[in-house]
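Protein Record: Sequence and Backbone Structure Tokens
======================================================
Tokens: labelled as protein backbone structure tokens, with as many entries as the chain has residues.
Task: work out the structure tokens from the sequence, keeping to the layout shown below.
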Amino acid sequence: MGAGQYDRFDVPVTLSSDDRFLASHSEFEAWAKGRKQLRMEFFYRDMRRKSGLLMDGNEPVGGQWNFDVENRKRANRNKIIPRPLHFPPDRITREVMELVETYFGDHIGSTKSFGFAVTRADALNQQAHFLNHALAHFGDYQDAMLSDEPFLWHSILSPYINSGLIDPIELCKQVEQCYLNGNVPINAAEGFIRQIIGWREYVRGIYWMAGPDYVRRNELSATRSLPDFYWTGQTDMHCLSQAIGQTLEHAYAHHIQRLMITGNFALLIGANPQEVHEWYLAVYADAYEWVELPNTLGMSQFADGGMLASKPYAASGAYINRMSDYCRACRYEAKSKTGPDACPFNALYWDFIGRNEAKLRSNPRMAMPYKNWDRMSPEDQSALRRQARKFVETLG
């Protein structure tokens, strides 16, 4: 678009294409045209072919496109967990922190733990630190969660990628080189590259193609407000306390904490997806709307009815217990479904299944949950839904 086309600015304006992405808006829309389902996996394969990353001619290195099945190990504390670099605030950053404390001191969050890079040089130092110390185990443990370990083997690079301090394609090339040099396994390299040239590119394409009305979608007619503990982290549910607490302290939580802890809970209680979106946009350092909105409204809350995700990412306490050590320190029992000590996620999950049956039963990927629901007696179904309603009433 040429200069001078935006008169309201009173100065000549030129819009240039964003060179931090592989796919332009028109390229994504061309890929999406005529498809009944817009699944990331197939778009990702096209981006692999276009970039040449982890490719052996026309075939994927390692003989398969996706190694996600190898990326779901439960972490333990016996391994040395690297810590991301912490950058002492420089003069300008300290001045900004003082302004924030002066004018927004009563808002959620804290400046005390701020240690993000604010220069390209420091962002590249964090990138090198990740490649050298964390990438090798990123694949195995990218879905894992441990109490009081907010970072594990994650890169903590998304704020720098999204703000432009780090070139995502150059980063992916370095990750590929780590694999080719024999320093990291294929599931680590492929898993990380998929996050960048697959998921990140895909949600950007969805955001711009869907347009401004996307934010107003609410397929499941969810209207409940988020509980107050989303702004304090003060709850007896240890998993939520951990995920929200570190969010308020560091403006960071990794993708499984966002999707399967805070997002899953909001989905199960029927929280208003616009309110959930606004919370995520406010609390995370990497949350630019083009990437946050599809992840929250589409992937996490299923409010777009399946445009982005093939099924709702709803789960009971069993998933959290399998992928974390959170349940060991919780006052609730992960395996109990009813009663005063039962994990709230369990009854809430089955209430979600029952409450949304008219819209979800026909989804092929929901066949197993509904088969299990149908196996329950009417009395057991009612008991679970009563348990859920009783708990939700305590949220206010």
